[in-house]
Amino acid sequence: MTTHQLGFIQPTTGRVPAWLGVLCILCTLPVTGCGSGRPDTVPVTGTVKHNGNLVAGADVMFIAEGTRSATGKTDAEGRFELMTFVPGDGAAEGEHTVVISKKEEIVDPAAPDSPYKQMRDLLPPRYGNPAQSDLTAKVEAGGENDFPFELTD
């Protein structure tokens, strides 16, 4: 069967019918999308202290139900800036559970050449577990959205 017999190309003009062009456009819309489809985000910053000391290198995550989580890492002064999609865009508006963790790799003396990494918590593990962390933050458009977190043992 040729394309002429299938009706994809009109035998008299040699052109593709208009309905086929429209079909191609409609099929690509779900792939390309109309707009970003991303929720609005608000810039979020903050600090992390543990027993009164600033914490460098801690991972910070804001988790809200129904939207993508925002993440950041503290710098040498214990400050963080969150990102959801691109650096500095912040977090979605609303209530968030906050988890903060800092780990270091340790070597197992019984198997020093093992390819499997073992990690040790440098902060109380409850802060790194969403089910146990009592840290929360409410991100608001037009708000300051600078959150200080004081972790204790």
Describe this structure in words.
It is a single chain. This protein is mainly beta. It has two helices and twelve strands. The chain has two domains: 3-32, no CATH class; 41-151, Immunoglobulins (Immunoglobulin-like), CATH 2.60.40.10. Helices cover 12% and strands 33% of the residues. The strands form four sheets. Strands 2, 3, 6 and 12 form a four-stranded mixed sheet that branches. A four-stranded antiparallel sheet has the order 5-4-8-11, with no helix packed on it.
Keywords:
mainly beta, Immunoglobulin-like, 12 strands, 12% helix
H-E order? HHEEEEEEEEEEEE
Remind me, CATH topology of the largest domain?
A: Immunoglobulin-like
Number of self-contained structural domains: 2
Shape: globular
CATH homologous superfamily label of the largest domain:
Immunoglobulins
Main beta-sheet annotation: 4 strands, mixed
Q: If classified by CATH, what would the architecture of the largest domain be?
A: Sandwich
Q: What structural class do you assign from the helix and strand content?
A: mainly beta
The share of residues in helices is 10-25%
**Integer-rounded radius of gyration:** 26 Å
